[in-house]
Amino acid sequence: MKALLPLALVVIAGCAPNSPHLHLPVKTEANCENRAVKQTAIESIVASTDDTVRPGTYPGDAALRKQIKNGGGVFAYWQDQPFPSPTTARALGVTGDLTLERAVIINQIDKATNTRPVWLTFATPKGDVTVLERAYDTQDVCIEGTPQA
Fold first, then answer.
1. Among 129, 130, 142, 145, which has the minimal tally of Cβ within 10 Å of its Cβ?
2. Higher-confidence position of 7 and 146
3. Assessment of whether the complete model's pTM goes beyond 0.85
4. What is the 3-state secondary structure (H, E, C) of the chain?
């Protein structure tokens, strides 16, 4: 029985979720009207991204702020947030974990795939790079409550 314990631990560790552990953002900019930003929703949405850089050109902060103003969403910012995403790291030419600096989440849900687009900005040795990925968590980033100041 003792001989099987190390094997069991390896199997259990292999079954553990592989999603990144994110800290709460240090800053958020959202359009939640009379509601508050749900920071745990931001964490869950970003952790549900599929580690695949999608084709797309970043439309710019102004265009996304306008889209968020009309349909909801958030700009979320982190400092020194490790983000294990090996396929995305390889696509960006980075070895090891990425460092997540920002996520732009819009409430535009693709009903066919039940996903949403998320723009992630990573610090790389060549400078900040923003990529489009797909997130599988489709919850709203706003909840009922009082907006935070």
1. 145
2. 146
3. no
4. CCCHHHHHHHHHHHHCCCCCCCCCCCEEEECCCCEEECHHHHHHHHHCECCCCECCCCCCHHHHHHHHHHHCEEEEEEEEEEECCHHHHHHHCCCCCEEEEEEEEECCCECCCCEEEEEEEEEECCEEEEEEEEECCCCCCEEECCCCC
